[in-house]
Automatic annotation (TrEMBL):
Pfam family, one: TENA_THI-4
Pathway(s) per entry: Cofactor biosynthesis; thiamine diphosphate biosynthesis
Protein name: TenA family protein
InterPro entries assigned to the protein according to its UniProt record, in alphabetical order: Haem_Oase-like_multi-hlx, Thiaminase-2/PQQC, Thiamine_Salvage_TenA
Domain Thiaminase-2/PQQC residue range list: 7-178
Amino acid sequence: MISAQLWQANQDLAQACLEHPFVQGIANGTLARHKFAFYGGQDAFFLEAFARAYSIAAAKAPDWEGFSIFHNLANGVLEELRLHESYATAWDVDLRNVEPQPATRRYTDFLLATAWGSDVGLIAVAMSPCMVLYGFLGQQLAQNGIAEHSYSEWIRTYSSAEFKQLAVQLESLCDRYTSMTPLVHSTYRYAMLCERDFFQAAWEE
């Protein structure tokens, strides 16, 4: 499977994200609130671009099943945004007036350029790291149980069976519409690098 090969080829970046102090701060609840608030605003901006990329992919899907799956995945992003809205309300973050930072803008520009300019398979490849990585992080952080603290809901969301199913659906589209090429490999890796840099930017806030 192409998706499994790509994930395995990028385990170094997956581990770097897992071990990142931002993610570990979520794991044990010690992450400074202002860092998470910054991340929440940036991630909401990112997710809006992510939803648009899914919609573009749906329009390009060559078959009805792919079209339907992409739309279902877009609905999953809208659910994820509701989680961010609950955080925003609790922590006084204005999600409507987020100024995207360079790491966020690099990621969203890459995703939307790929969505508009590439075939449906490469779009799925560019979007997969976000879903698969977050499912991986959630499951890793939840494997010994989820302690109650400020970030417990984040861990519950991304370790859930429902989120895992969305990631599996997206990976199935990678396998359906792509074959392994240097461009596929480099696109996936670039998205993984964007994920790492996204956490780093939030940590440095």
